[in-house]
Amino acid sequence: MAQSTFDDDDLFGEAADEMRADVEEHLASAKATLPTADAVWETDADNVLGALNGLRSALDTGDAVEELRQAKKQYVMGERAGAFEDDEELADEIEALQELVETLEDAHEQVGELASLVPQLKSDLEDAHAGGVDAEADAEADGEEEAEA
Q1: I need a surface site. Which of 1, 32, 68, 137 has the fewest CB within 10 A?
Q2: Backbone region of residue 61 per phi and psi (left: phi > 0; alpha: psi in -120 to 50; beta: other values)
């Protein structure tokens, strides 16, 4: 039977290992909830609005923000306690993931704004063309006028 140790250094080392494992677990969970590259790149939509709505859904970060937050909290506690021997590696990984999540959130917002604009733009263009504006006919007329000149 193994003897339990209550030495402060041993306990601190054990706590540091557990804290690092928690940080790594939260980082892995955050990455797992991010959209796949294919989900962002591919579409099966029939029109632009469908593609935009699909992209907006694909850009959803899911629980990645909360998992990243938990990883960062654990990391900050461990770093301040001096628990990590190679804390730069974890810091770099956290920073890279944070930048990716922020980029996804920005893209999600921009696509959402564009998806809101496209139906109104389509309606305005339909109204303009219904009122006698015909871009193809105007282009052909301009071409004929230039040819005559």
Answers
A1: 1
A2: alpha
Q: How far apart are CA 49 and CA 1, in angstroms?
A: 66
Q: Give this prediction's pTM.
A: 0.76
Question: What is the C-alpha separation between 75 and 69, in angstroms, rounded?
Answer: 10
pLDDT digits (tens, 9 = 90+) for 71-91: 999 999 988 888 888 788 899
What's the total number of domains in the chain? 1
Per residue in 19-76, pLDDT (tens digit) is: 999 999 999 999 999 999 999 999 999 999 999 999 999 999 999 999 999 999 999 9
Instruction: Tell me the backbone φ, ψ of residue 79, rounded to 5 degrees.
Output: -65, -45
